Morphological differentiation-associated protein (Streptomyces ruber), 274 residues
Amino acid sequence: MLGLVDNHSLPRTAAFFDLDKTVIAKSSTLTFSKSFYQGGLINRRAVLHTAYAQFVFLAGGADHVQMERMRAYLSALCRGWNVQQVKEIVAETLHDLIDPIIYDEAASLIEEHHLAGRDVVIVSTSGAEVVEPIGELLGADRVVATRMVVGDDGCFTGEVEYYAYGPTKAEAIRELAESEGYDLARCYAYSDSVTDVPMLETVGHPHAVNPDRALRREALARGWPILDFNRPVRLKQRLSVTPRPALMAAAAVGAAAATAGLVWYASRRRMSTA
């Protein structure tokens, strides 16, 4: 499907995957909201808001303005969260929550890219405490994700050190290409959102996956392939994805980022319709 194995005498190549609605069927961070509630990180009202935000996200996603507002709001929600506790919650519930919502088509693509000699890199706006374990589960080689500042007490300060969104995703990919020797003209990228057009433009083989309406229009105008993934399946029900021991955090992450933003987005939507 993807051609012959790369000639190792040529520059290295990679496949860059957005995560939510591209590799998995839901928002990665919102999926953990009930677990965060049970761990005492968020209250019952926030759980209800994240459930609504998940619905909104699946129905149409968030545009650029809403995503920028998410970044401004997340500091109030995640300030004081203990990072180790977040990691433990994710580790305890990862297989139960994420394994069933991985797209079979995406898992197959990841396998094919590895067989073709390409690295697989997950590039997500969600936080690393969420993205890194999911990347390991999928067999990814590296992750790029949002990074929150952690204080001396091991808790999030509420400040955002790096926001993996829009143009910053493209910048991270170019930096990885320089450090790892990737030939971007021969690399692949996959995303569902028009906000990831900068990322898709960075590579020679961009693909729109389950695209929102704006990205579908863009893909049709540019002649980019459009893929429809609709078969979530547990990894244990298919050929296993070989774990990649070299998994690295290209940008370490704070799990609070996407949760905070989309909780805020849900609240805004409720207020605007009240």
Observations:
- The CA atoms of residues 267 and 273 lie 10 Å apart.
- The first helix runs from residue 33 to 38.
- The two ends are 50 Å apart (CA to CA).
- The chain has one domain: 14-268.
